[in-house]
Amino acid sequence: MKISRQVDIQPRWLIIQQARFGDLMQTAPVLEGAAEMELPPRIDLLVDYGLTDLAQRLEGVQSVYTGNRHMWLKELDNPVRSLVDLRRTVGQIPDDLRPNSYNRVINLTHTTESAYLAALIRSDFHNGLVGHRSGISAADSWERFFQAMLPRRNLNPFNLVDIHLGIAEVKRPGRNGKVRLGQPVAETPSGFSCPMIAIQLGANSPLRRPPVESIAEVICQIYSKLQAKFILVGSKDEKELAERLIRISSQPIIDLTGETTLVELGEWLSRCDLLISGDTGTLHLAAAIGLPTVSLFLGMAQPQHTGPYGKGHIILTPRRDCYPCDEHCQCAHMSCHMDIPPRAIASLVLQALAKETAPCPNGATFDVRVTDFSEDGFLILRDPVTGSESSAGKALKQFWDSELTDTLPGSCLPESGLILNPEDHERLRLLSELGFRAEKAYQRALSQRGKALRMRETLVEFVDLEAQMMHMAGFNDLAGMLVHMYQMERRSLSDDASLESEIIGLALGALTRRSGYLAQRSERSTGFTYCSTPELQVVSA
Amino acid sequence: MSIWNQNARWLESDHPQLVSSIEETDSGEVKVFPSRQGEPTATVGAVRLHSSYNPISEAEGQSKPVDNLDNDAVVVVCGLGLGYLAEAVLRKYSGTIIVVEPSLSILKAALESRDLENLKGAVLVFNTTVEEAIDCIEARCGSGTGWKRVKLVVHPSSLKLNPEYFSEIQRVVQARSNLSVSGLGILVVTPMYGGSLPVARYCASAFERLGHRVDLLDNAIYDPARLQIENITSNRQHREQLGYMLNTLMAESITARALDQAVDLVFLVAQSPVAVPVLDELRKHKIPVAFWFVEDWRLFTYWREMAPRYDYFFTIQKGDFFNHLERIGTRNQHYLPLAADPTVHRPLELDRIETDEFGSAISHVGAGYRNRRQVFSGLTDLDFKLWGSEWDTTSSLGMVLQRNGERISTEESVKIFNATSINLNLHSSPFHEGVNPEGDYLNPRTFEIASCGGFQLVDQRQHLDEHFKPGEEITVFRSAAEMREQIDYYLLHPEERQEIAQRARQRILRDHTYDIRMSEALDFIYSHETTLASHRHPDHIDNLLRDAEADEELKGLLEKFKDKGVLKLDDIILDIKERKGELSRTESIFLLMNEFRRWAREKELA
Q1: Fewest CB atoms within 10 A around its CB: which of A30, A87, A148, B131?
Q2: Is the distance from CB of B106 to CB of B114 less than 8 angstroms?
Q3: In terms of CA atoms, which chain B residue is nearest residue A81?
């Protein structure tokens, strides 16, 4: 009797993760964290077709639903299929899910498509993006932060997994972020007495891919010191890279590219001692199962955003002005690929295999970082020599954590660590002033209800101030991000017109508070500035 | 009082002329005699007009099509006979009824043998041409979608007796009814360049004015590519291969566009790029293809390979050409002479500078064909301006040639036609000297000069008098000498020139515009097509509503688009975004589908 009651009150969640393999692995800690909750939810997972098997192996997942977008694509191009037919096909997933009634739908896909899919699923609460008639909105502050940060990733201090945990309102799991992949379905060959090193050559963009020649040199250097076994992993599209590597290497290498399913890949990795990779799905799979990694973040890959989640992973990044490059960059020279010498990679691999803790210094053209968890539970990148993370990153994390988690905003703001340059400072000071004036104008307009003409005049003033804020967003990344957050917050209740005035007021308040606080983080702070009291004051210069 | 006198009394008030015509008519082969039930029946030659046993009961059966008919229909009874069928329809149906009978001898027999006064309740269309009958039906049903209301009830024996007359009425009614659905979707495909390029564009404009949805695939944008091929290589084989590839690109675009836009008809003119696999593909999708061959069949012979592949083949020549077309298995050929576009070819007020530049006593716009060189070389003593390309600049005509033989644009030719006292229009011939005695088609210039209100002298052509009254609306010469005489005469008689030109323009506006031609082409096509291609499209709203029958929410969403024809996802999305309130499940699925499509496109771009 007691047990069945327990079952009845167990919350039911659906997590939507329709992105790629790596993103699914960056979702796994959410499952782990949820499983450690006081009342663990029953979790269903909705993933893309090719990830079904892997998703089913993630522990804590009740049922896996899949959508085959490639099949839909074929159907959309089929001239004899009607819109009614297609509606049936595309509606099949939500129709399958219809009988389930969820307490929470957590959309971790971050696309408009997934937002409309989320909207179709019956649930008491939504987290992440949700579609509405007028467009999409973010149902929680972490997703709003994510959307505002996307076009300007350099302002993001959080690892994607921490953002996922924030969106899902789940605490960081124990076990150092490791997840369980369930029991292997087949016995994998092992029996090697020497260390086994997995290498992932490919990446989803050539800009992120370590040069084959460098990796060949890395293998050569490691092999000269340690009789390790090397296995190449990856998809069949990466076969050509593997063949090239084998052609130019004289060391024995086992080529498994294109030979394994994702589940089998996990099984192989669990037999290995280390993975060398770029920023790839394989890297995140390795991190999830607790395999040490040495990764090269090249091109547009940014370790503070998508670094492997877990303690002690070693990350190398080029040190040059153009790194990290823009998401849509079409670089002709890719010279950052040559910034990380094979000798340094080999040395870090050997050090990791020996489980040495000696500092590994930055080179002349590259930086080394080691992943760790901060006291407040976020993944951080430490300088291996000084052992510290960047003060700006720390301050920004604290600032946003205070703004985004469900505590009193602004309650635990850091006192120092973030110093803005004069241009940022000036823009944010102005933005704060505009936000303050807009908020006051909006409040005045609300108080003039019933006096149509005066109310209209005040609203015109508000709209004008809002337009000035939008204009400013185009000139400065930080201001742009705050305005973007403001826009997302304004839309957050979407079709519910009755709450509009409250939402606008709150969004303006947040904008003023954030820009005021950030503007204060400057040594040249003068004039209009934010104070910890709810009112804003003009301080004479 | 005889039965005829009784009938004549009520008929006379509305149709006095008809009554006297009937009185003067001979009954001819019509023989009236009593049926076995006693009612009169008749034969016409070997054709039995009604049942010789029970004509009333027979008519009951023939009038079945009007059983349970909505009251807003317009019933057209084709064939009076002795009036039994019309009476049966009148008994069953209380809405508008039209009775059509062209034969005076049958009318006479009917009105002499039976009291038909109850026919006063119907509209009587007796002893008229097909056109008059059609006008009368249109007056009752209304144009456009009104044709959908017309219900034909055909008297089988009357159809046997006057097959051409009644079949034509059936054909036109069917065509107008097919066409009446909120405009057709027509894909007009132009050539890259040349004389038929503007013709294709005029056709597209005309279709648009007729209320159809026109999608213009204007291949003129590829003309620079064609010219570029000439610069790429001097190797003929390579040039041909590149030209072939360019043609394939343009031809394949037809299928892609026709399917994407769910068109009802693809319309091409001479030189429009097309390829056999494209025509096969369109046939597979049951999209009819019409081709207007605006060229001289004796000079351009590619029609031999291509004509049978089109569903509809329009020509500017008839006679022998039709025999050839039939022999090679061409389906649905139809004579469709060229025309003018009065929105382009129109009288202009020219300023002094334009008059000086484009005006002269006589002029000719056209290419330097052999017969023209020979005839025009005798006119250099006059105020003569020669416009166009391919003239020998070193000959005596070089003195009157304008702009060193550049091509003349449509806009400029309109100014020339307006500014010239006498426009010479000698049809081209590479084989003759002077006037081609076998010339049968009329070139575009004949219609364009007239439409501009310009005065022209044109060489004698077969069928010219079907288009213009010679002497009244147009002036015709049979030889170079006669042309010269007419020039001398009309230069001295400007009022006569003006009167003829004005009458010619009136004739154009009445009979020879592209609107009229395209209307005729569509009438022809849709008297053969039983349904519209777009109606067969899976996303035609009727098909969607049928598919959605079991889903109330989906049906409710789709019903708003009842008159939309082929529905696109974009139409639904736009509508969803304009609505208010919570999203329904169906709306959300369509929004999801839209996002998925966007994802697919981005993926494609990436």
Answers
A1: B131
A2: no
A3: B538
